[in-house]
Structure formats: structure tokens, C-alpha cells
Amino acid sequence: MIEQKPAPRFQTLAKWFVPIAALVALSAWIYIAPPGLMGKLDAIGYAVCHRLSSHSLFVNGIQFPLCARCTGEFNAAAIALILQGFISRKRSKLPNRGIIAILIIFFLAFAIDGSNSYLALLKQSYGSAFAKIPNLYVTTNVERVFTGSGMGIAMASVLYPMYNQTIWRVPEEKPALEWPQFGLLVGIVLLFDFGALSNLDAVLYFIAILSTLGVLALLAMVFSIVWVMIMKQDNAFEHLRQLWLPAVAGLTLAFILIIGIDLFRFNLTHTWTGFPGLTG
């Protein structure tokens, strides 16, 4: 494969421009976000989650940055990315068919439970218009955490090998997750899910932080792939130290997206919590 590279002058400009843009984006996010650590985390969750208090977990009376479903989802995604980073390294193949089938079940559980929960929310908020549509069951935060976790595992299990396929000059032609690693991943995520449903403050704070970092990690990886493709540097990297520019560019674009959504939503709703009018 012939490696395509942008002009050297453009590469040099990017090495200066991206770090400066990163500092500007990070400063802007710190400025607009509510005060305190949890406030800063809220500003990240606010960009991807409805943040309805009735669908959220709390620690010491403080609402999580993400709802229960999104907490499970992005917490599991963060764990899956970390585990694959240590165990799978440059592996670039999707899991085998058996694991893919389980991931599809995880997705279906997420979709069914999410749809059921959303229908109940609409019925409670706009009763008469949806009153005749039956709910399958009453969804609680327990179901939200576990079904969200399954979706997080599915997303990270697909994104990680796709990232490796795009980044590395010589990716390893093996599945990023095989049965032993997949079983270990599911076991760890289940432990964290039970931790999220516990009353242990230290565990809850840790999960609140980890799940929010999971949002940043997923967005940064996706935007890193986009950056590499724009720069025509597909399959051009050999060592982790070479990834600093795509990583910083991806994180910068993630913060720009978060800031844009935050500003739009806050100007629309004038609150950092859930959407006005929706109750549940």
C-alpha cells in the first residue's frame, strides 16, 4: 500500500494548531461548565444524555452526570476499551460469530428496554396521547444499568478493532476479543454494575467519573479516526508515541462537539438537568 501524506507544510501547521485548539476548547469547556468536579462531569453528560433525575442514580444526594442507562453504557465502554488496550493491543478483527450474536442480543435488550422506558415516560408526560399503548413491564434503574452496560460492551467491541484497522501500519490479524477475554470483560462489567447499584459512596463516585470518561474516550476515538482519514494517514502508525497528534485532535473535536451541544441545549432549556416537561 502506498502511504498518502498531506503536504509537509500542512503537517507542521497541524502540529502547532492542534495543541493550541485543544487548549482553547478545554478552556471554553471549563468556562461554560457548572462549578466543581461533578459540575464539570455534568457538562459532559449533558451533551449525550437526557439527565432526567427520575432515571438517574445519586451519590450523597448529587445526581450522576449520566442517567442510569448511560452510566451503565459508558462505564462498560470505558472498561472494554481499557481491557482491550491492555490485552488485545493491535488486534484488528471483530469477534467471532458467537460473540457477535451475544452482542446483538445486548443491543436488542438495550433497544427493547429503552423503548419500553421511553414509552412510559411519554405516557407520564403526555398521558392521553399515549394512554392506549401498553408497556411490556415497568422499567427501573436496575434494568437501565444492565441493558446500558450490554450496549456499552457492544459499542467498544466494534470500535476498538475498527480503530486498529485504521491506525496501525501492521495491525494484528486476530480478533480483539476472544471467548476468554470476552468472559473476563462481562464479569468485570457485572461487578461494576452491582457497584453502581450499591450504596458505597467511594464506588459510586468512581463509577460516575469513569462513565463520563467513557463518553470522552468513545468520542475521541471516533474523531481520531476521522482526523487520520482527513490527513490521509490511514495505516501509517507503528508506535503509540506517534498517536499523540490524532489523539489530541480527536479529543479537541470531542470537546468542541460537547461545547456546541451544551450551549444549544442550555439556551433551549435554561437548565443543566433534564428536559422541562418530561417527567418520570
Work out the number of β strands: 4
The gyration radius over C-alpha positions equals 20 Å
Low-confidence stretches: none
% residues in beta strands: 5-15%
Q: Roughly how many Å apart are the termini? A: 55 Å
The structural class is mainly alpha
Provide mean pLDDT, rounded. 94
Tell me what you see in this structure.
Helix content is 67%, strand content 6%. By secondary structure, it is mainly alpha-helical. It has one domain (61-261). Strand 1 (56-59) and strand 2 (62-67) form a beta hairpin. Helix 3 (68-87) runs parallel beside helix 6 (141-167). The model has no long low-confidence stretch (mean pLDDT 94).
Task: Provide a concise account of the structure shown.
By secondary structure, the chain is mainly α. 67% of the residues lie in helices and 6% in strands.
SSE layout:
Layout: H1 8-32, H2 37-45, E1 56-59, E2 62-67, H3 68-87, E3 91-93, H4 97-125, H5 127-130, H6 141-167, E4 172-175, H7 179-196, H8 201-230, H9 244-269
Parallel strand pairs: 3-4
Antiparallel strand pairs: 1-2
Helix pairs in contact: 1-9, 2-8, 3-6, 3-7, 3-8, 4-6, 6-7, 6-8, 8-9
